Amino acid sequence: MIRWLLVILLALVLVSGFSALLQRLGLGRLPGDFRFRLFGREWFIPLASSVVLSCIAGLLARWL
Asked: How many domains does the chain have?
């Protein structure tokens, strides 16, 4: 179980690190991505971007 927690933590760190690059590519501004303010904080839920990135990763995994 510790391994899965480390994998999830590493994935979150990588996604947050690459978020600026992904926003320059246009991901994060798709119609299914939600951005709102709540309690003085800005929240971002990238549903459509996650689906697109998952499809790209699946195609790359199948190709390689």
From this structure: 1
